[in-house]
Amino acid sequence: MDILVSNSTLLIGMAVVFGLFMAWGIGANDVANAMGTSVGSGALTFKQAVIIAGVFELAGAVLAGGGVTATIRKGIVDVSSLGETPELLVYGMLASLLAAGIWLLVATRMGWPVSTTHSIVGAIVGFGAVGIGMEAVQWGKVGTIALSWVTSPLMAGAIAFALFRSLQKLIIDTEDPLAMAKKYVPYYIFLVGFTMAMVTLLKGLSHVGVKLPFGENVMYAVMTGVVVALIGTVMIKRLKFTPKADKKFHYANMEKIFGVLMIFTAIAMAFAHGSNDVANAIGPVAAVVSIVGSAGEVAAKSATPIWILLLGGVGIVIGVATYGHKVIATVGSGISELTPSRGFAATLAAAATVVVASGTGLPISTTHTLVGAVIGVGLARGIGALNIGVIQTIFLSWIITLPAGAILSILFFFFFKGAFS
Amino acid sequence: MVRRSPISNMFAGSPVKPLQEHIGKVHECVKKLEPFFVAVVGKDYDQVAILEREIHRLEVEADNLKHELRLQLPNSLFMPMPRERILDIVTHQDQLANKVKDVSGVVHARKIQIPEEITELFLQFVRVNISASRQAKKVVNELDELVEVGFRGREVTSVEVMIDELDKIEYEADKLGQQINNALFVIEKSMDPVEVMFLYRVIQGVGDVADIAQRVGARLELLLAR
Fold first, then answer.
1. I want to staple A36 with a disulfide (CB 3.0 to 4.6 A). Which of A2, A331, B101, B116 is the partner?
2. B-proximal residues of A, 136-165, CB under 8 Å
3. What are the extents of the domains in chain B?
4. Shortest Cα–Cα distance, A84 to chain B (Å)
5. Contact A385 B12 (CB under 8 A)
6. Which of A32, A168, A389 minimises the CB distance to B149?
7. Secondary structure of chain B in the HEC alphabet?
């Protein structure tokens, strides 16, 4: 216990630096996958995507990032089992951050497919099971998380399929797709705003200490939906249509309207991504800060301080600004075959799934969820060709990343344990 | 240090654009038949030689596009249209250009002449065959729209109408071919037998253009039927 008091500045300092590094990595690499579909479908210029990512990743992290952060912080390793040795959790969390960060660095260098979420979860389970003891790991919760890695792509796929079929029915397969798009797209924009606001109000904000009665939640969500739908309607009104463009590709003008819709889905995606992935970086930081701050008192109740969420959000934004913008451009240019209507269906499905997971406190992979959503649109015969070889890389990232994160974090755990005692 | 993105890896390159580029090139080649035979009728042999070379060049270019398309269609692709069918379509498209190259090659090499009695009918026959190829190209150009609508609904109906139109053009070409054969039969006794034999062969070759175009359409129709 004295160790924690005498080294408090050093320990918190290390946690903040490691956490910032992870957040930077997420901003530099992972954001690109979330924004890629929007840039690729031509709905956003790459500059707009960077700005949207910057603003809404931060907003998602702060407003809705509390749930997953709480899971990473105290849901995987049972803090009450530590008793007299709370410093073990501090070492473990530091070790996990370092392990996940280094593993991501190495894997990226080598071009291996990895997931940030899987690295950090693997690392925490690793040090918990070996460093503290098998009984310290809440296996039930870990099982739920593992299950959510399977269900989230499936759920996103199902939603994307349904969304795309509804587009076909209401807009694409009609006498005048352009008119129908003008008519229905504002409703879809409402849906985007409403879903995002609803999940955030209901689940996200409670983790940062705001709790409203259900009726008020619904009211605010509807208001958000209406406001964004109105903004969208104005944007659609200001679009210029060129009948000539339809000669070459009959749906060129209709897709322009979906381009407006896609801006809102991109915002939702950035928000969702921020809300889920920020925890990978700052969940462990929050754990360290709460233990060291209370001088060893393992407080299981307290909410995550806003400044830590903010730290993660800012880290992600710095990642996007310094490095991520290049990756967004690269990924976006690889997806040029996606038209905004498909991009919308896939991205909204993924964003909704991720935001629900964030609200429930489940750390999932945004990228895998998006892959599931794109395949969902493909199943509706909406995409010219998909290389489903990527499914293999998803399995690989499960098989390789989890043990790698675990082994590294066990090594670092014993290193810290030895160094501090 | 860019991590490989599974998202962009997914979009493997749809065969639709390459298929359309290929038929575009093929039709460019088929179109040359008209100036080619106008030059033949006008006995402008310099022009015939130039056009024959031009046709040959276009056929080679179409061939290259065909190879590229085949190479970029790996097994792990998930597509709204079966891979085998796409490969089948490109093979047939390619036969259009091959046929045109063969016909123009023979005409040029043997300095074949079109008898005055059938000149007008023959040029008309050439034009109808070219329009069959044009119609096939039009149908293939609807493929991206079909992907856009997910192969269902109105767009499918409108493509079916276009394929019907292609069938009609082919039928018309058939009839014209028959008329030319009849007209040639009347005058063949007065001509050199070997030349007549090759003339029949040229008529047959030109008529094959519409046949193959129709086959391309039929294969596209199979994509719709699901």
1. A331
2. 164
3. 14-224
4. 42
5. yes
6. A168
7. CCCCCHHHHHCCCCCHHHHHHHHHHHHHHHHCHHHHHHHHHCCCHHHHHHHHHHHHHHHHHHHHHHHHHHHCCCCCEECCCCHHHHHHHHHHHHHHHHHHHHHHHHHHHCCCCCCHHHHHHHHHHHHHHHHHHHHHHHHHCCHHHHHHHCCCCHHHHHHHHHHHHHHHHHHHHHHHHHHHHHHHHHHHHHCCHHHHHHHHHHHHHHHHHHHHHHHHHHHHHHHHCC
pLDDT tens-digit map of A226-273: 999 999 999 998 888 887 777 667 788 888 899 999 999 999 999 999
Shortest CA distance from B82: residue in chain A? A385
Rounded to whole angstroms, the Cα distance separating A207 from A382 reads: 39
Q: Which tokens is B74 given?
A: 């790996």
For A296, which DSSP code?
T
Which CATH architecture best describes the domain B14-224?
A: Up-down Bundle (1.20)
Residues in chain A within 8 Å Cβ distance of B20: none
Q: What is the ipTM of this complex?
A: 0.78
For the record, the structure tokens of A369 come out as: 């969820």
What is this structure's pTM?
0.87
Q: What is the DSSP string of A21-43?
A: HHHHHIIIIIHHHHHHHHHHTTS
Q: How far apart are CA A359 and CA A355, in angstroms?
A: 6
| A7-26 pLDDT tens trace | 788 888 999 999 999 999 88
Q: A132: closest CA among A84, A72, A99? A: A84
Alpha-carbon distance B80 to nearest alpha carbon in chain A (angstroms) = 5
Residue ranges of domains in chain A:
2-420
Residues in A touching B12 (Cβ below 8 Å): 385-387
Q: Cβ(A376)–Cβ(A156) under 8 Å? A: yes
Cβ contacts of A381 on chain B, cutoff 8 Å: 80, 147, 150-152
